[in-house]
C-alpha cells in the first residue's frame, strides 16, 4: 500500500506492494504525491509480478544478458553487441537497476555528446530504451518504469550525401590491389556494382551465383526476405577474377574487411568515405540509369521507400544529360 508523509518542505510518497521492491519519491505538493501513489499502485497491481528479483542486479548484468539473449540472434548483431559490451564497462553500468533514474541517462547523454556525434548518442539511448523495455515487459523485471522512456534524445544522424568520385574509385582500387589480401579490390568493386550490404556479400557462396545468366541469389537477408539480384557485365567480369577455391565468394571476416578498407582508403588519401557509402553510390547510380523505384528496391532489398531515398543522392550533371531525351 502507499503512504504520504510531510518531510520538511516536501512530501515523501512511498508505495509498497507484495512481490515488488519499495518505491519512494518526493514532491513539492501533497496532491502530486497522492496522484503518484494512486497511479503507481494501480500500475503495479495490474502488472504480472516479476519473475526476477532485481534488487542486486546491476545494469552491467542486464546489458550482458540482453547481448546474449537478444542481440546475438539479430542479423548484423556485431555492432549492437559491441556497444553493449562497451557500456558494460562504463561507470553507469555499476549502478543497480533499482537505483537508476532518468537523471543517470541525462548525465550519460550530455557526457557522450562531448565525445561523439548526436546521431551516435541517439542510437545508443534507443538501444538502452529497448533493453529496459524487454527486461520489464518480456522478462518480468520488477521495475516501475523505463528510465529512458521519456528521456529527451539528441537529433539522429543526418542522411549522408557522400558520393564516390571517379578519380577516387581508381585510386581506391589501386591501393586495394597492393594489399596481400586478394579479395579486397574485388569486393570493393562488387559493392559498387551491386549495392549489396556488407553482410550479404560476406555470406555469398559460389553456389548462389549464376554467372552465365548474370544473377546472384541472396538468402536470409536483413529484411527477412530472399531476393535475386541481377549482376552487371562488369560485376561478372570481376567475379571471374576471384579464385573459386572456397565455398564463399569472399572468404574474409567483417573485421578483416574493415581493417583492409581503412588501409586502402588511407593509402589512396581519401577522406570521409565509409565502406557503406559504396551502397549509397550503387543505389544512386541505379536511379541515374533510369531505373524505377520498384526496380531499385528489388535490387537493394529496401522495403521502405523512404529509407531507399535516404540512400539516394543523384548527381545533377548526370541528370542534366537526360534532358535531350525529353526534348522534341
> Strand count, sense and closure of the main sheet?
3 strands, antiparallel
* Unreliable parts: none
Number of strand segments: 6
Strand content: 5-15%
**What gross morphology would you assign?**
elongated
* H/I helix tally: 14
Please tell me the CATH architecture of the largest domain by its name: Orthogonal Bundle
- Name of the CATH homologous superfamily of the largest domain: Intergrase catalytic core
Order of helices and strands: EEEHHHHHHHHEEEHHHHHH
- What fold name goes in the CATH topology slot of the largest domain? hpI Integrase, Chain A
The percent range for helix content is 40-55%
Radius of gyration: 26 Å
**In what order do the strands lie side by side in the largest sheet?**
1-2-3
Structure description:
This protein is mainly alpha-helical. The chain folds into 3 domains: 2-45; 59-137; 166-325, Orthogonal Bundle (hpI Integrase, Chain A), CATH 1.10.443.10. Helices cover 46% and strands 8% of the residues. It has helices at residues 30-45, 59-69, 77-88, 102-113, 118-137, 166-177, 184-194, 198-203, 233-239, 254-267, 277-288, 293-300, 305-310, 316-320, and strands at 2-7, 10-15, 23-27, 209-210, 215-218, 227-230. The chain has a 3-stranded antiparallel β-sheet, covered by helices on one side. A 3-stranded antiparallel β-sheet has the order 4-5-6. A hairpin with an 8-residue loop joins strand 5 and strand 6. Helix 6 (166-177) packs across helix 10 (254-267). The N and C termini lie far apart (82 Å).
